[in-house]
Amino acid sequence: MSAYQDDLNTITRLRDAQGGKWDAINPEYAARMKAQNRFKTGLDIARYTAGIMRQDMADYDADTSQHTQSLGCWHGFIGQQKMIAIKRHHGTTKKRYLYLSGWMIAALRSEFGPLPDQSMHEKTSVPALIEELYTFLRQADARELGHLFHELDDARAKGDDITVRAVQKRIDNYETHVVPIIADIDAGFGNEEATYLLAKRMIEAGACCIQLENQVSDVKQCGHQDGKVTVPHEDFLAKINAVRYAFLELGVDDGVIVARTDSLGAGLTQKLPVSKEPGDLAAQYNSFLYTTPIDSIDDVREGDSVVKLDGELRKPLRLANGLYRFRSGTGEDRVVLDCITSLQNGADLLWIETEKPHVGQIASMVDRIREVVPDAKLVYNNSPSFNWTLNFRQQVFDAWQAEGKDVSGYDRDQLMSAEYDATELAKLADEWTRNFQRDAAREAGIFHHLITLPTYHTAALSTDELAKGYFGEEGMLAYVAGVQRKEIRSGLACVKHQDMAGSNIGDDHKEYFSGAGALKAGGKDNTMNQFG
């Protein structure tokens, strides 16, 4: 028996037990409303989606072609339309997630207005966006199921039993738009207690996966900006523990933690951890510092710090702002240590922020990590901060040059130029770009590929194109030809924007509640009927 039929039978028995007081209640309508509201709370969503992620991680371990993907979404409507598009074009939401980008919250969702990605925005805006995204995804379910219920009613009215059974099967096997969200908590917005409190709010809103980075929270920078400052491992592990406690307290026992390291591009630390014995984590962290030897007391100035490294007294270089500098060339070693330490202390997935999309560079670090933690897996930022065209053209150029191929017809520094678009080099670079995610999943341990802020750019591009034409010679044709006609011919459900916004759901409810006397919006004079 299907869940829908089971609910229908249960509600029928409940109504019949009321001695006539509930005779106005139609059990089928109630069962439909229940089906349209499968997830009652954010915690229901978090538990459901955590199970999906854990299964997907196991699938990837067995077959690296089973990697997952997501796009960053800054509004519930954007997330909803993304998942509707995925179901329409690909038939399933499997292996597709949403990404909640701290960068986009800062740039688009702060009450202060546009902000840089430096944890300056309100921390409450993070769980608020999670809740908003899931509200829109649940509404997508309600809308689509509502259409199926109307198909069922029409088939019943025509006595078409074959269609009735087919539609009922689609209802019984309905795939939700609700998918996992990987949610960016930045550096935790404060100390470990602040991290725990915010993580709880995020989980309660529906997050099954929280991404945490090892920067100092009060001077946090975007991973693609300069001036990044990391914290000692002990500080970062305390915040990983805080997130895990939040998951366990709320009953999301298989919640997922992504540990992000910015050490590849971070040359500074705010403080020196206290080493308790030779070779411990603090000692390993301090071993990467830029230091100078101390030969006499005269080498130590007022206020200087002194550390003992490998039996020798040394003075760490401290900048005018009080920060300490790491030795040049230690970034990759620090990344490897960060990743191993995080996985050994409660993290589930890794995020290595790199300065370019290069499979070989990523794989070189992951291979070292997997020598210690064989099932290490990455979440990787396919960042819009990379110039993908230039990067891959230069990678092809370098590969050809290493092979001894003649590259004299190309200027490596100018490969972004449109004059190269039709060349053999550019075509191969595009092929490498097309295969990047598959290649990196296979060769560099990347389980999940995401783009942090693609919909920031798509919104800007589409708005620019519309504004150019509408306020120019094209006038209304810019909207008709550039937007509406494309929506109609592409079969986008959003062309019926009243329906997408919930008009038909509301009409159904009015009929449920008021019967034949309901005043509905979807009659013959509704202009939405022009779209068929």
TrEMBL record:
The active site is at C222 (proton acceptor). It comes from the Bacteria. SUPFAM superfamilies: Phosphoenolpyruvate/pyruvate domain. The keyword Hydrolase does not apply. Mg(2+) binds at D184. Substrate binds at S101, G102, W103, G223, H224, R260, N381, N382, S383, P384, S385, T452. It catalyses: D-threo-isocitrate = glyoxylate + succinate. One of its GO terms (molecular function) is metal ion binding. GO terms for biological process: carboxylic acid metabolic process. Keywords: Lyase, Magnesium, Metal-binding. The keyword Iron-sulfur does not apply. Pfam families: ICL (PF00463). Coiled coil: none annotated. Can also use Mn(2+) ion. Its cofactor is Mg(2+). This is Isocitrate lyase. The lineage of its organism: Bacteria, Pseudomonadati, Pseudomonadota, Gammaproteobacteria, Oceanospirillales.
